[in-house]
Amino acid sequence: GKKVVTLFGFLSVKKGHRIALEAAASLPPDTLLLFAGDRHPDDTTDYVPKLKEVIAARGLTERVRITGYLPAEQIPILMAATDGGLAPFTQSSRSGALANLFAYGRPVLASDIAPHKEMAHEAPSLLRLFRSGDAADLTTQLRALLNSDAERTALQQSACAYAERHSYAAMAEETVKVYQTAQEPV
Length: 186
Fold this sequence. Notes:
This protein is an alpha/beta fold.
C-alpha cells in the first residue's frame, strides 16, 4: 500500500544516499525509500554503518529500508514493486544501477550531473532531472513524478526503448556494422 522509491545498487558516497535521506523526511508517509543493495565488497569504509546510524537518528527506520545484497532472482520482484527509481548521484557511478532501472522499465528521477544530462539530451523523455545536491528540489520533483501516472508511463516506455538501444545485443550489431564498413573497398 506504499509508493516505493528505489535507489538501486551498491551503497557508496557518490550515489547520493544522504541527499535522498534529506528528501525522505519531507515525503508523504505512504512513500518508502528503498536502498536496494549493500556495501561493495571492496569498500573498507564505514559508509554503510554511518548511513544506518543517520536513518535511525532521523527517525526514518519505518520510511527508509536497506535491503542488503539481493540475489539475481529477487531483482525482478524488487523492480516490480518500484514506483520510481532514484539516481541522486554526485558523480558518475560507473555502475549498472541505472542500466538495471532502465532494463526493467522503471521511471527515474536523477541528479543533473553531466552524464545524466547527456542521456536526457539523447533521449528527452528518459529521465526527470533535479538539481544535484538540492534535497528540496529532489523532494519537489519526486512528489511530482509520483503523482503523475502519465509521466511515469512515458518515462517507463522511454527507459525500455533506451535499454533496448543500448543492450549488449544492439552494441554487438553496431560493432559488426563498423567492421563490415571498414572491410568494404573504398
